Amino acid sequence: RHVVAQQHDRSGAPEQTDLLFHALSHATRRDIVRRTMDHPQSVSALASSYPMSFAAVQKHVAVLERAELISKRRHGREQLVYGSRESIDRARRLLDELEMLWRGRIERIDAVLADDERGRNDR
Q: What is the DSSP pairing of strand 78-83 with strand 41-42?
């Protein structure tokens, strides 16, 4: 029987963690975050950089906004997209926590295997 531990972010909300990693799972969305981290860009400027429709880029931006990886602000007639360093840092912390969890599990497996090997050698 498998038991899957639900990973929570600091707010305790597994849904927000799922949104974060779902948003980062697509190459275009990762690129949008990267491009807007230091320099905000309009949605139309972003759309001109990808071989997809404006509407498709808008959908990617909406996924990123729901995950709080970017924010949008109106600047005149344009919507500017700003990347969120805090959310990237949150993703890094969550990955660090998962790495520590799995390293601990691997160490326990190694210990069990070493004990088993010692038991075989003692026979």
A: antiparallel
CA gap 120, 123 in Å, rounded: 6
Q: Are 82 and 34 in contact (CB under 8 A)?
A: no
Kindly list the distances between the CA atom of residue 114 and the CA atoms of 38, 100, 102, 107, 111, in Å, as whole numbers in the listed order. 49, 21, 18, 10, 5
Contact, 60 vs 32, CB < 8 A?
yes
Q: Which of 70, 20, 76, 35 is nearest to 47 (CA)?
A: 35
The model's pLDDT over 14-47, given as tens digits with 9 standing for 90+, comes to 788 899 999 999 999 999 999 999 899 999 999 9
| Strand blocks (E) in the chain | 41-42, 70-75, 78-83
- The pTM is what? 0.72
